[in-house]
Amino acid sequence: MGAxxxxxxxxxxxxxVYNEExxxxxxxxxxxxxxxxxxxxxxxxxxSTDRTPTILKEFSESDxxxxxxxxxRNMGITAYLNRxxxxxxxxxxxxxxxDDWYHPEKLEEQVRFLEEHPDHGMVGTFFTLVxxxxxxxxxxxxxxxxxxxxxxAYRNSFCHSCVTFRREVLEVAxxxxxxxxxxxxxxxxxxxxxxxxxxxxxxxxxxxxxRKHSKRRMVRSTLNSIxxxxxxxxxxxxxxxxxxxxxxxxxxxxxxxxxx
Length: 260
Description:
Elements: E1 11-17, H1 24-32, E2 39-45, H2 52-62, E3 66-70, H3 77-87, E4 92-95, E5 101-102, H4 106-116, E6 120-130, E7 136-139, H5 145-152, E8 164-166, H6 167-173, H7 184-193, E9 197-209, H8 215-231, H9 233-236, H10 247-259
Parallel strand pairs: 1-2, 1-4, 2-3, 6-9
Antiparallel strand pairs: 4-8, 5-9, 6-7, 6-8
């Protein structure tokens, strides 16, 4: 599946970026070296003020598959993710954050899976969590749709940079909810899973950089992660019984409020 051809559907990789001059080169290069070659790379720069725009310009000039959209003012991640989605032309749409990066075979594995499983609207992968001091932790996730739904009742079952969507399913489900500043990916996964199956490939095909967030962001994100599963109880069906495990998230919220 190395060379691009008509039997290899186009994949759009969508990456938002804001002031990531120290990380964005690694992210871009991880797409360029993919064993799956039929891709376009849509990068939305949300008004970066560091060297990020210069770096993006250099890459886009050297590879016509790399398309840069720049917001002159910072719009916030949800709005500019949706702006990027409207530009994507691929049959499949893969996500990547600017401080994360792909294993070289990630797109190839996911395209193969989606081509062989037309009833699935999205597929993620396992990932490696990388800390600033070089430590790495391998993170596994539920693999099959049924087990993913069980976990979704109380916790996200996907890593955002790991997922690839089927475009036609995403268009029916709708894009990111711009009313949500945090956990908007969690919300979107529920809507995708309301009309199609989902899975995770049990291979470590993505690297996620550990991010330390502000107390305010952690509080708002955790609150959203408590509210969102309750909102989609119809999607969860009988798996709503696992919502009782949301008490873990409530305890996490209390810990952030009291000790962070």
